[in-house]
Specification:
Blueprint: E1 8-12, H1 17-28, E2 32-37, H2 40-50, E3 57-61, H3 67-81, E4 86-89, H4 104-131, E5 135-140, H5 153-173, E6 178-185, H6 198-207, H7 217-228, E7 239-242
Parallel strand pairs: 1-2, 1-4, 2-3, 4-5, 5-6, 6-7
Helix pairs in contact: 1-7, 3-4, 4-5
This protein binds nicotinamide-adenine-dinucleotide (NAD).
Amino acid sequence: MDRLKSKVALISGGARGQGAAEARLFVSEGAKVVVGDVLDDLAASLAKELNANGRNALALHLDVTRSADWRNAVAACEREFGGLDVLINNAGIFNTSGLEETSEELWDAIVNINQKGVWMGMKEAVAAMRKRGGGSIINISSVAGLTGSSGSTAYHGTKGAVRLLTKAAAVQYGRDGIRVNSVHPGLINTTMIDIIPKEQRQFITNNVVPLGREGTPEDVARLVLFLASDDSSYCTGAEFVVDGGLTAQ
Ligand code: NAD
């Protein structure tokens, strides 16, 4: 119940999917949560739900490609809830285009959100965490950041970059008590993967995923909770896979 008592968490892309599941779980574990997203209405209704039993959450507009939005989000954590202890760099976009099929505009859009956005979030968060004597940054990569496939070129590139941005930050900020880890989900049932044809998803779960099912946002949220909490006090610079065994073979 109280694994995140007195902690303040900022979740990018928190309005729906995995981010929303993390926001719900975090509040149930005693955290105050700031939900940042470009989907303002969805973020606002999630905050309303989370505030049903007290002041637990705040929704704000956060486009992870804009440094001014990040500054505003970190300032809101400090002003509204007294500081920042946990950052979840969760916002992301997915596209299945292969190498030659990727336009420069598409490449830039994916890199800006999935990669530059993660760097920018960490850059704006570390000073606030230092003031609290430390913190936990959780960067949501993907199994696509560990292995390649015949498409999704820009997505693979950005998620692989997140894996090593995580390790670099973990090394730089270890002495500040700031832990930085990456999470690598497999096929998780959210809006993001609606672009994958149903038959293909069925084939993957039936034939490729050892646990024989897609993951849920809650499957990922429970791992993220571990990394946000003091239960993971000696974990940093590491990659945590939550994929039903997808990358085990
Ligand atoms: P989702 O599409 O439901 O959620 C992504 C969220 O990011 C949305 O709320 C969206 O509005 C937000 N977002 C997009 N661009 C943004 C921007 N510029 N600024 C702020 N927010 C922005 O999908 P999800 O599955 O919950 O994705 C969460 C994370 O998990 C992503 O980083 C994704 O790449 C990663 N992931 C997902 C899967 C999967 O199978 N669903 C697998 C591996 C990794």
